[in-house]
Every structure is written in C-alpha cells, then in structure tokens.
User: What shape does this take?
Amino acid sequence: MLLALLAPRVRARLARGDSTFARYLDHARRGAELARDDGASERVVRLIARHHERPETDDERLLARADREALP
Assistant: This one.
C-alpha cells in the first residue's frame, strides 16, 4: 500500500510478470477470481479482493479487525 502511494509507477512495473513480488502484489485480485470461480458469494469475493484496501463496509471493518487481532 505504501509503495502504491509513494511510487505508483514503480509498483506497477514490479507488479508485472510472474515474480514472487508480482504475485504478492496481485494476490487479492487473483484470490478473488479463484473464489468466484469456485462458487463463493459475491460478498466473500469482494472481501477477498479488498482485504488490503481501507475498510468501507461493516464486513470489511470486521475482517480488518480480525486480521489485526490474529497477529501476534
């Protein structure tokens, strides 16, 4: 997220290809696509796709809280 704010062109360049870093940067979108293909609800697909974005809905805030509390 910080890279996207401070150096969006660098982030875009690093996100190309199939490197480990590119896969990490794109994992939310890829995970959401896999979930959709596997029959997940649009609600779950949206949560997966946006899990690194600023929470906007109650579901997203709850997921962000769970992520924070799960960390040691």
Notes: The radius of gyration is 14 Å. Residues 2-70 form one domain. The chain is about 70% helix and 0% strand.
